């Protein structure tokens, strides 16, 4: 049985490939536009790995590259540009799919592929990375523990030394620009990106750090499967001067469209060493649920810390293996919380060294 990893020669793709080879007996097909890098990688990794050439800008090449595999993992960013095109190609090939899409704009288009997935009798899980991904599954874990949930707050934090690669920078700039979705008072609304900053405590090595509104998919998917009143996603970087640099780029219009984002991301990559000064090679997620248990208001807090590549890649690998081995696939397109079992998911992550901490507090809530 074989799994294709699209963008497999990139940073996150390489981590997905490594986990598949370490934690499964599946064969791996690296699919990438970078032919030399992809072939060298396949040759180095041995008989279980082979390479196929494809270009996300030419969907027919994706269809051909994934034909015959059991599941395809899409790691090709930026997702605001390629997520729907690549997902449609995977489904057209009649293949199960997983992606790590962390941009909010493609969500409507991805969910609209549900009928195509059902026609092809395959399953596609979108947003199976760090945030979204781990955060969705933590939200589901907490939701099942409480009798009633009023709000879910998702916070992510990245050390500047852990934030690498052009796709990651483009994502950061995109999600920090314009108005982004939140779910407030039982309805979807828009707020200005980077607005309403607050101080949130993360586990070591971070401590207290500033986060502000960020355009991520969780606000669009969690209310579809859970009865909630409020969902928000806020994020930030450390050291905090990186946040100031992002705000300045947005204020100066350097992120106003795709071309501007590409150009600004290239400049930032050239100055990568400068932006990494004072950062740490760790990233974190914090998910807070406020709700009731046995008639008492409760606040559940889940946190986890690891390298960004692992936090993003390992959930995708775990989900891909589930779809590869699952006999009773439920056809359709799903967010993580609508398809996967949180207990099995976090057991798999724990076996790979990603550990979740849980805290519970009494909450003083005005009913």
Task: Describe it.
The chain has 367 residues and is of the alpha/beta class. The protein folds into two domains: 2-129 and 309-351, Rossmann fold; 134-308 and 354-361, Dihydrodipicolinate Reductase, domain 2, CATH 3.30.360.10. The chain has 14 helices and 16 strands. A seven-stranded parallel sheet has the order 3-2-1-4-5-6-15, with helices on both faces. It has a seven-stranded mixed sheet with strand order 10-11-12-7-13-14-16. Strand 8 (179-184) and strand 9 (187-192) form a beta hairpin. Helix 1 crosses helix 13 (308-325), helix 7 (134-145) crosses helix 14 (342-351) and helix 8 (166-175) crosses helix 11 (258-270). The longest helix has 18 residues, at 308-325.
Write a concise synopsis of the structure shown.
The protein has 367 residues and is of the alpha/beta class. It has 14 helices and 16 strands.
